[in-house]
UniProtKB/TrEMBL annotation:
<dbReference type="InterPro" id="IPR004045">
    <property type="entry name" value="Glutathione_S-Trfase_N"/>
</dbReference>
<dbReference type="InterPro" id="IPR036282">
    <property type="entry name" value="Glutathione-S-Trfase_C_sf"/>
</dbReference>
<dbReference type="Pfam" id="PF13409">
    <property type="entry name" value="GST_N_2"/>
</dbReference>
<dbReference type="GO" id="GO:0016740">
    <property type="term" value="F:transferase activity"/>
</dbReference>
<protein>
    <submittedName>
        <fullName>Glutathione S-transferase</fullName>
    </submittedName>
</protein>
<dbReference type="InterPro" id="IPR040079">
    <property type="entry name" value="Glutathione_S-Trfase"/>
</dbReference>
<feature type="domain" description="GST C-terminal">
    <location>
        <begin position="90"/>
        <end position="208"/>
    </location>
</feature>
<feature type="domain" description="GST N-terminal">
    <location>
        <begin position="1"/>
        <end position="87"/>
    </location>
</feature>
<dbReference type="InterPro" id="IPR036249">
    <property type="entry name" value="Thioredoxin-like_sf"/>
</dbReference>
<dbReference type="InterPro" id="IPR010987">
    <property type="entry name" value="Glutathione-S-Trfase_C-like"/>
</dbReference>
<dbReference type="Pfam" id="PF13410">
    <property type="entry name" value="GST_C_2"/>
</dbReference>
Length: 208
């Protein structure tokens, strides 16, 4: 029986991990980090996560030495691989999931994070960055919408780790009005459906 400790303070990155744990039905303890002004202030947290960022997941497992996963990508893939859930075994189907997981992690995520940084956190207005990240977010959401026109979930027929990774970031853009103009109906359908999942609703509230 594993003892899992999730270090988080909310945010889309943190919610990826908590939604994944909820989807898998795993028991875990939440350590709520002291996160102020974009910085984690817990002394010693750098021993858990080298950049001092969250989420991180400490695993104390009878079958292996205790170990720590830092970063939402490592947490999602490790849990999918060790449980055999939310990642298909068949190579072509798994490749599709990995395609969309990678797009979400390396294109959508930096676009949404950059948009937040330059729209909300930056002390000065920098039009080039604001316009660039707005266009990048739109480009990624349009790609998700196009994909979801032909299948129910990002990875294909089944709900997968790609949907778990995407939801908190699509949610952040939706709260900013990205789905309001009706131009992305397939993404809006997916957003409503995934957002209605009980595990997603529980995970999005962590830490309480
Ligand atoms: N690569 C990490 C990035 C996580 C990340 O950016 N976390 C932010 C909160 S959303 C953080 O911990 N920031 C604190 C800092 O930058 O010092 C992941 O995918 O989980």
């Amino acid at each position: 029986m594993s003892r899992l400790t999730l270090h988080t303070a909310g945010s889309p990155h943190g919610h990826r991990a908590s939604v994944m744990l909820e989807e898998l039905g795993l028991e875990y303890v939440v350590h709520k980090l002291d996160y102020v002004g974009g910085v984690v202030r817990d002394p010693g947290y750098a021993k858990v996560s080298p950049l001092g960022k969250f989420p991180a997941l400490e695993i104390d497992d009878a079958d292996s030495l205790p170990h720590t996963l830092f970063g939402s990508g490592a947490i999602l893939l490790h849990l999918a691989l060790t449980t055999g859930k939310l990642l298909p075994g068949e190579p072509a189907a798994r490749g599709e999931v990995l395609n969309w997981l990678n797009l979400v992690m390396t294109d959508l995520t930096p676009a949404v994070s950059g948009q937040f940084r330059f729209n909300v956190l930056a002390p000065d207005r920098f039009d080039y960055a604001i316009d660039f990240f707005a266009a990048e977010v739109r480009r990624c959401l349009a790609a998700l919408d196009g994909r979801l026109a032909s299948c129910p979930y990002l990875g294909g027929a089944e709900y997968s780790v790609a949907d778990v990774a995407a939801f908190p970031f699509v949610d952040a853009t939706a709260k900013g009005g990205s789905l309001k103009d009706g131009s992305m109906p397939h993404l809006a359908r997916w957003y409503a459906e995934v957002g209605a999942r009980e595990a997603v609703q529980r995970g999005m509230k962590v830490p309480a």
